[in-house]
Automatic annotation (TrEMBL), chain B:
<feature type="transmembrane region" description="Helical">
    <location>
        <begin position="228"/>
        <end position="249"/>
    </location>
</feature>
<dbReference type="InterPro" id="IPR051124">
    <property type="entry name" value="Phosphate_Transport_Permease"/>
</dbReference>
<dbReference type="InterPro" id="IPR035906">
    <property type="entry name" value="MetI-like_sf"/>
</dbReference>
<feature type="transmembrane region" description="Helical">
    <location>
        <begin position="185"/>
        <end position="207"/>
    </location>
</feature>
<comment type="similarity">
    <text>Belongs to the binding-protein-dependent transport system permease family. CysTW subfamily.</text>
</comment>
<feature type="transmembrane region" description="Helical">
    <location>
        <begin position="30"/>
        <end position="52"/>
    </location>
</feature>
<keyword id="KW-0592">Phosphate transport</keyword>
<keyword id="KW-1133">Transmembrane helix</keyword>
<feature type="transmembrane region" description="Helical">
    <location>
        <begin position="299"/>
        <end position="322"/>
    </location>
</feature>
<dbReference type="GO" id="GO:0005315">
    <property type="term" value="F:phosphate transmembrane transporter activity"/>
</dbReference>
<dbReference type="Pfam" id="PF00528">
    <property type="entry name" value="BPD_transp_1"/>
</dbReference>
<dbReference type="InterPro" id="IPR000515">
    <property type="entry name" value="MetI-like"/>
</dbReference>
<dbReference type="InterPro" id="IPR011864">
    <property type="entry name" value="Phosphate_PstC"/>
</dbReference>
<feature type="transmembrane region" description="Helical">
    <location>
        <begin position="128"/>
        <end position="152"/>
    </location>
</feature>
<protein>
    <submittedName>
        <fullName>Unannotated protein</fullName>
    </submittedName>
</protein>
<keyword id="KW-0812">Transmembrane</keyword>
<keyword id="KW-0813">Transport</keyword>
Length: 282, 330, 348
């Protein structure tokens, strides 16, 4: 982990340089809330009692050392958690006030509203760049008559349009890693989600590509709610409005502290948060 | 860079690392390599010996051996061969006919079964089903043959009559006389049942290798199982499935005993799949072998050679496809 | 501070109501199919099956369409199709096992293991003959094939895993190609290379040799898989301790793969134990006990079954044949169970 040379003051200055989005201002729904979420893999309790609100139109960073349950928590937010056969959970995840785990809820509709970008860029190799962006429409059988405009707007918002506009017919695998990741972001945008979950989207990328993605995140935050898991505290400071710190002391992961990003890095309330953000461990 | 080198030194040539193996290792490697060559040697010997016995028939008959459909040996009182005509055209057609039916029926069922095993079944049920299907793949063809003859035939005959009744206007489903027993159709179905476990196993292994990140990406975009399978699993597994189907085709083409029992092996060209006559190359060899004189045996060797080469080609293609597409991106 | 930890739940799993709905659709479809068979032109098992199949498809489609819309409806179609496919796959295996057991038990008696068919014809009463000769013949021929193909198969596997030279890819390919050689061709090969030019007589040894050709690919492939499961550290540790490659393979790799190699033997035996076509050509069909593989025709289980079916016509002959089949199938079950038991555990 690259936290050893970070001082709290430098991080908080980065964080306060961002203007905090005003929650609930845009027509973005009422955001995402969790109520007492627990998660298990088999008998192992990996996440305990997380209650956290993600206001619409904000960027929230989930930070913490490896194995603290932050990725698991992220995956409970759009029901990707259940793909692990032994997985179990408890608690509620409310999207616009409705529990996404309630019986009778169509899980595919939830995942349309809560999109996800993965750690490793994973474009569909059998599809061209253009087809990749529009794949969500095909997968969810959404009719859209104006796919050309949608293609351009998604790629533009993902910051990729200028680089690929002449090669939309090429296969996604021909792009660089950073471009592939932005392609994956464009792909999630095409189905117009309310919330975008990002699971360490830059961990496999070089600094230049990371920078481009962070710019993209800042742009996207105007129109949607973003939750990003990151190992990189400078990144959390640069891109997020709010930060939640997760930690596991050998038992299940817990959320230690959640606050506006600037105050997490300048005046953490909890000793363990302070130790982590000042690089004393992790 | 602050420091610049004025000239780059030419990099030294990489050192050649040589290890002189000890004598015991030399012996070991030699023995293992010789043993490893066994498959090459055996396949070569098969081709050579079948050619030695059968080649003169092929030279005599030339292409007629493949295209013509005659199998006649005329001998005088002393047993000398006066005239002989050999052509396995009818049997090649029969081989293709029954194997094609097997593929058309067997492969879709296998692929769907494999999808069920990979994406629907879980836990204990999945384990049990996989064991049962693997066990079925180990059943001898003798068992399929006699089960097909005694148990399956009556049902299949009834289905054949139905097809003939409603689709008889299509020449393929017409029959010259209403004999529906032991037809290529029934042989094809029994072969389909034989290859289903094999093709299912291969398809399942290929589906299992579908990269999880792509599957998750599809689900995260709101895909249902159907649209995920269409967008991710099928493009990924297509080549491998075709390879698996080819492997099934090879098995169906070379099958002897099961075809011999459920097909009325008659030496005639029969395109009408529901009519009870036909055969394949392997069952012809078994049928004619018992009563064949030395000259005819050579012709059977030639037929065996053709069958050997045919299955070799099919299996080679299958292997190529499975290796090429089995573990790779598209 | 004591926190109350809620019980883990799996809210994504189908609820009791969901399962009830599925069962209701299934039962309903069975009923509708029955009605269709009763009141329309459909009849027989096949008619019932198709009626049921289409009713189930339609019922699922409509149900999920009303509940969740088009997407879910289409999705349910695939689920019905795949479930039906696995059902269709299972019908033959159930039918085969049921047939062999229900018809075969009549042909089983104690005399099977003490008598041969030298003095009995297939149409004689069951108790007057046995399959001693066939059992002995199969054991001798399979054993002989095993003695030859095990070393060759394992050497091939060792070449692929331990030496892994330039020829590894072509050899892998050839082994695969060899596994596709039709069994009758293996018989013809032994005829053309040994029986006609050399021995001029059928014998058990020739049967063994023909079976060897079919057995080598199975043993080679299974052994290769099993040897690949041996972690490389083990080999490196062997070499790092100053062992030669030969000592490492003989002292570390092969012992570690022992149960894997036994699995390879078992699967190889299962592959050839029921093989019929080549034996009909090269080992002849002995009806009396012959323990000498080098001279004289030698009986075998598959031949015993083959002859009883093809030359007999009485209930006794069929009982005999199915009885032989039951013995053969039992062998396969036992071999398969053993292989599962051995390879299910960790190799080593």
């Amino acid at each position: 982990m690259t936290t050893s040379h970070v001082t709290p003051s430098s991080l908080s200055s980065v964080a306060s340089a961002r203007t905090v989005s005003q929650p609930g201002t845009a027509l973005l729904g009422n955001g995402l809330e969790t109520r007492g979420v627990h998660a298990w893999f088999g008998k192992k309790h990996v996440l305990s009692d997380v209650t956290l609100d993600f206001a619409a139109g904000t960027v929230t960073a989930l930070i913490g050392p490896s194995g603290c349950g932050k990725s698991t928590f992220l995956r409970t937010l759009n029901r990707m958690h259940e793909f692990i056969p032994t997985a179990a959970m408890a608690g509620e995840v409310l999207l616009d006030g409705k529990d996404i785990y309630a019986p009778g809820i169509d899980v595919t509709k939830i995942r349309l509203r809560v999109g996800m970008v993965f750690q490793k860029p994973n474009p569909f190799p059998s599809m061209t760049i253009g087809q990749n962006v529009l794949s969500g429409l095909k997968l969810a059988q959404i009719k859209n008559s104006n796919t050309d405009d949608l293609l351009e707007s998604c790629l533009t918002r993902a910051g990729l349009w200028n680089e690929v506009k002449d090669r939309l017919g090429e296969h996604g695998g021909a792009l660089s890693g950073g471009q592939q990741q932005r392609l994956c972001i464009a792909r999630s945008l095409a189905v117009e989600p309310q919330v975008l979950l990002m699971d360490e989207p830059c961990s496999a990328l070089d600094p230049g590509s990371t920078f481009r993605i962070e710019e993209t995140i800042a742009d996207l935050a105007k129109t949607m709610t973003i939750v990003i898991v990151t190992h990189n505290m400078q990144q959390a400071a640069r891109v997020s409005d709010y930060t939640a710190f997760f930690l596991s002391d050998g038992g299940p992961g817990e959320m230690i502290e959640a606050a506006p990003t600037s105050s997490i890095f300048s005046s953490p309330q909890n000793k363990r948060t302070e130790d982590y953000v000042t690089g004393r461990f992790g | 860079m602050a420091i610049e080198l004025k000239e780059r030194p030419t990099p030294p040539a990489p050192r050649q690392i040589t290890t002189k193996p000890r004598l015991s290792d030399q012996v070991f490697r030699t023995v293992v390599t010789i043993g490893g060559m066994a498959s090459l040697v055996i396949l070569g010997l098969i081709a050579i010996f079948l050619s030695i016995k059968g080649m003169h028939i092929l030279v005599d008959e030339k292409f007629n051996f493949i295209t013509e459909s005659r199998w006649e040996v005329i001998t005088d009182e002393t047993g000398e061969v006066i005239e002989a005509n050999f052509g396995i055209g009818a049997m090649l057609i029969g081989t293709m006919l029954s194997a094609t039916i097997a593929i058309l029926v067997g492969v879709p069922i296998s692929v769907l079964s494999a999808l069920y095993l990979t994406f629907y079944a879980n836990g204990k049920l999945k384990k049990v089903l996989i064991s049962v299907i693997d066990l079925m793949a180990a059943f001898p063809s003798l068992l399929f043959g006699f089960w097909g003859f005694f148990i399956f035939m009556s049902s299949a005959e009834y289905w054949a009559k139905l097809i003939n009744k409603y689709l008889g206007f299509i020449p393929l489903f017409d029959v010259p006389t209403p004999i529906f027993e032991r037809s290529p159709f029934i042989a094809g179905l029994v072969l389909a049942i034989m290859i289903i476990p094999i093709v299912t196993s291969i398809s399942r292994e290929i589906f299992d290798q579908t990269p999880l990140d792509r599957v998750q990406a599809a689900y995260a975009l709101g895909a249902t199982k159907l649209s995920m399978i269409k967008a991710v699993v099928i493009p990924y597994g297509r080549g491998g499935i075709i390879g698996g189907a080819m492997l099934g085709l090879g098995r169906a083409m070379g099958e002897t005993v099961a075809v011999y029992t459920v097909l009325n092996v008659v030496y005639q060209v029969n395109w009408q799949v529901l009519f009870g006559a036909g055969g394949n190359v392997a069952s012809l060899i078994l049928l004619k072998f018992g009563e064949a004189g030395p000259y005819e045996v050579d012709a059977l060797m030639a037929a065996g050679l053709i069958l050997f080469l045919l299955t070799l080609i099919v299996n080679a293609t299958a292997d190529f496809l499975i290796n090429r597409f089995g573990g790779k991106g598209r | 501070m004591n926190k109350v930890i809620p019980a883990p739940q799996k809210p994504w799993q189908p609820t009791f109501i969901d399962k009830l709905e599925d069962v209701a659709i299934l039962v309903g479809s069975l009923g509708v199919a029955g009605a269709i068979v009763k009141f329309t032109g459909f009849n027989g098992k096949l008619g019932y099956f198709f009626a049921f199949f289409f009713t189930l498809l339609v019922a699922n489609f409509v149900f999920h369409f009303i509940k969740r819309g088009m997407q879910a409806a289409k999705d349910s179609i695939l689920q019905v199709l795949t479930a039906m496919a696995i059902f269709v796959t299972l019908i033959p295996i159930v039918s085969i096992v049921a047939t062999v057991v229900s018809k075969g038990y009549k042909g089983i008696h104690w005399g099977l293991l003490t008598k041969d068919m030298a003095l009995a014809s297939v149409n004689d009463p069951i108790a007057s003959g046995g399959l001693l000769h066939a059992l002995v013949g199969t054991i001798i021929m399979v054993g002989g094939a095993l003695i030859i193909s095990f070393p060759i198969g394992v050497l091939t596997a060792l070449y692929l895993t331990e030496i892994n030279g330039k020829l590894a890819r072509p050899i892998k390919f050839l082994v695969q190609a060899m596994s596709g050689v039709p069994s009758i061709v293996a018989g013809l090969f032994i005829l053309s290379s040994l029986i006609y030019p050399v021995t001029k007589a059928l014998s058990g040894l020739m049967g063994s040799l023909a079976l060897t050709i079919l057995m080598i690919p199975t043993i080679a492939r299974t052994s290769e898989e099993m040897l690949r499961l041996i972690p490389n550290e083990l080999r490196e540790a062997g070499v790092a301790l100053g062992g030669t490659q030969w000592r490492t393979v003989a002292g570390v790799v092969l012992p570690a793969a022992k149960s894997g190699l036994v699995t390879a033997i078992i699967l190889g035996v299962a592959r050839i134990i029921g093989e019929t076509a080549p034996l009909l050509l090269v080992s002849g069909g002995g009806d009396s006990l012959n323990t000498n593989p080098t001279s004289g025709a030698m009986g075998s289980l598959p031949y015993y079954i083959w002859k009883a079916f093809l030359t007999g016509g009485t209930p006794e002959a069929f009982a005999r044949a199915w009885g032989g089949m039951l013995v053969l199938l039992s062998f396969i079950f036992i071999l398969f169970g053993l292989a599962r038991y051995l390879s299910g555990r960790k190799v080593g």
